[in-house]
Design brief:
8-stranded parallel beta barrel, 10 helices, alpha/beta, lyase, 251 residues, 12 strands, amino-acid biosynthesis, TIM Barrel, 28% strand, EC 4.3.2.10
């Protein structure tokens, strides 16, 4: 059985780690380089680093910070934010990233998924999908959740899998920062309809939420931010509890 992964997410804005609720009301959560090192030391399986204002500000992810984080960690490290070309990905990989996460740029030009997968391999390409459930329909949103579309979450996920995405990082905007649990029904459907790993994001508030998303949501990995940044759920304790609930994790 494949082990389930625990992934802290560093949302970066103006050089600091931030965290909000439903994608707004951001508050400072510390220095990303220091946090990255702490997480690598205490047993996180991977890290995700998202430059959350890069797309809105129409600029590339800050390479200097990626380099500094990569120097401090020995676990897989995914970078996202403002990535729109092979050149962008090449620069990030050279700075030490292991994978890249693309979101708005893939929706605007779906061929980008094919291009990156062909050039760097599908294992390098994570397609992040921010979606909101509106009247029972999950709709994709762009630019850090600020631009709604009529694109269906499940159809879009299937399309990017066909185009060569290696993983899906699905964030439920309804659940983000609420600490009320993950969108397990939607996650389970994604897991059933796709053949690539699904990373759950949005809603972690306690250990039971992680147990639920692995069992009910059939998620392959669970990503969280504030509960880790502010010490509410120590990763070592979380993994022990997951193991006690017969969920395979790397201790």
């Amino acid at each position: 059985m494949l082990t389930k992964r625990i992934i802290p997410c560093l949302d970066i804005k103006d050089g600091r780690t931030v965290k909000g609720i439903n994608f707004v009301d951001l508050r400072d959560a510390g220095d990303p380089v220091e946090l990255a090192k702490q997480y690598a030391d205490i047993g996180a399986d991977e890290l995700v680093f998202l430059d959350i204002s890069a797309t809105l500000e129409a600029r590339a992810t800050t390479l200097d910070m990626v380099l500094r984080v990569a120097e401090q960690v020995n676990i897989p490290f995914t970078v996202g934010g403002g990535i729109s070309s092979i050149k962008d990905v090449d620069a990030l990989l050279q700075c030490g990233a292991d994978k890249v996460s693309i979101n708005s740029s893939a929706v605007k030009r779906p061929e980008l998924v094919n291009e990156l997968s062909d050039k760097f391999g599908s294992q390098c390409v994570v397609v992040a999908i921010d979606a909101k459930e509106i009247d029972g329909q999950w709709k994709v949103h762009l630019a850090g959740g600020s631009i709604p579309t009529e694109i269906d979450l499940f159809e879009w996920a299937k399309e990017v899998e066909k185009r060569g995405a290696g993983e899906i990082l699905f964030t439920s905007m309804n659940h983000d920062g609420t600490k009320n649990g993950f969108a397990n029904k939607a996650l389970a459907r994604l897991s059933e309809e796709l053949n690539i790993p699904i990373i759950a994001s949005g809603g972690a508030g306690n250990t039971q939420h992680f147990i639920d998303t692995f069992k009910e949501g059939k998620s392959d990995a669970a990503l969280a931010a504030s509960v880790f940044h502010f010490g509410e759920i120590p990763i070592s304790n979380l993994k022990k509890e997951l193991k006690e609930n017969n969920i395979e994790v790397r201790l």
